[in-house]
Write a structure and sequence with these properties.
- This protein has about 325 residues and is mostly beta strands.
- The protein has 5 helices and 19 strands.
- The strands form 5 sheets. Strands 4, 5, 6, 7, 8, 9, 10, 11 and 12 form a 9-stranded antiparallel β-sheet that branches. It has a 4-stranded mixed β-sheet with strand order 15-14-16-17.
- The longest helix is centred in the last third of the chain and has 12 residues.
- The chain is globular and about 55 Å long.
- The two termini are about 30 Å apart.
- It comes from marine metagenome.
- This is Thioredoxin domain-containing protein.
Length: about 325
């Protein structure tokens, strides 16, 4: 196993909310990173993440999945209080169209634990029948009391990022053979060489499933961003004979940043995929089509479930289903 740690770590102190995140699991403080925070000429399509209002009791929801479209969507959010992240077992989610007094749909959103302590996101798969403005009312039990928070968000006719069933963009990514130093491949402190041996364009056309994550570990600064590279490392150790696992750095010049996003420019691969926010993971089938997509942090359980739906004769790596 080729894994090396270096000393790169960029502490952040922006929001008075202590959380665990990033690839070294140290306690850090974060705020949502929005498009205006990025370098000029590299603006994202949507502000991110979407932060809801604070309730009368001091609770708040933060939406990880802002790229929503008509049809079925993964709807993921975190809940926070003045003391930190809320880790109740489940939340009830009611969706209303703008101006409607009766909810359109109701869903249960279980808490999915992250690989870092006291962190988790609530995830449900929901249906939107039409585009436009929507509202989510989220009910949950915390410390013996019923709480309610709200989120207002927009649903598009078509998503911005590639959607399930679509062909993955033909976009090569940097590999070990393309650089002189590993620092040109990632801002992170974990150097798992296996994630950079193959170009994304190569794996997408390999006839084997691919799990690819787009993220910049050192700049994982908001409440819904998590240690996605760590998840891929663990999955690769177990399933590297059945699928490819690839990390694509969001920024083209990670070795030049040193914590300063004023110097950053998005990588060509990130731009060709047209991603509207800074952390995405896709599961791609054997024919190069998007099988599943995850905005914000995706747990290993979510990714494993999506990957196993493609696999036949798991253990041989010889066959897989397509979308």
């Amino acid at each position: 196993m080729n894994r090396v740690l270096n000393g790169l770590f960029i502490p952040v102190s922006i929001l008075m909310l202590s959380v665990f995140t990033s690839c070294n699991y140290l306690e850090k403080e974060f705020t949502g990173q929005k498009s205006e925070d990025l370098v000029q000429g590299n603006e994202l399509a949507l502000p991110y993440p979407l932060i809801g209002p604070v309730s009368q009791n001091g609770y708040q929801a933060i939406l990880a999945t802002t790229d929503l479209g008509i049809g079925k969507n993964r709807f993921a959010f975190v809940l926070i209080s003045s003391e930190g992240f809320v880790n109740s077992e489940t939340a009830s989610l009611s969706l209303y169209r703008a101006g409607a007094q009766i909810f359109d749909q109701r869903y249960e959103a279980p808490l999915l634990d992250w690989i870092v302590p006291r962190r988790g996101s609530y995830v449900s798969y929901v249906e939107f029948a039409q585009e436009g403005e929507w509202k989510a009312v989220i009910d949950f039990l915390h410390e013996g009391n019923q709480q309610t928070v709200e989120l207002s968000f927009n649903v598009l006719r078509n998503t911005i990022a590639p959607n399930t069933g679509e062909q993955a963009p033909d976009a090569p990514s940097k590999t070990l053979n393309d650089v002189k130093n590993f620092e040109e491949l990632s801002t992170g402190i974990i150097r798992e060489l296996a994630l950079y041996r193959h170009s994304l364009a190569e794996t997408v056309n390999s006839g084997r499933p691919t799990v690819v994550t787009f993220t910049s570990p050192a700049f994982c600064r908001n409440e819904v961003c998590g240690p996605q590279v760590d998840v891929l490392v663990r999955m690769n150790e177990e399933l590297n004979q059945q699928a490819y696992f690839v990390h694509v750095e969001v920024y083209d010049n990670p070795n030049e940043l040193q914590g300063d996003l004023d110097l950053a420019r998005f990588s060509e691969t990130f731009q060709k995929w047209g991603l509207p926010s800074l952390q995405w993971t896709f599961v791609i089938d054997c024919e190069g089509k998007i099988a599943s997509r995850f905005e914000g942090f995706a747990t290993s359980g979510e990714l494993r479930s999506a990957l196993m739906k493609l696999m036949q004769n798991v253990g041989t790596g010889q066959h897989c289903r397509t979308v």
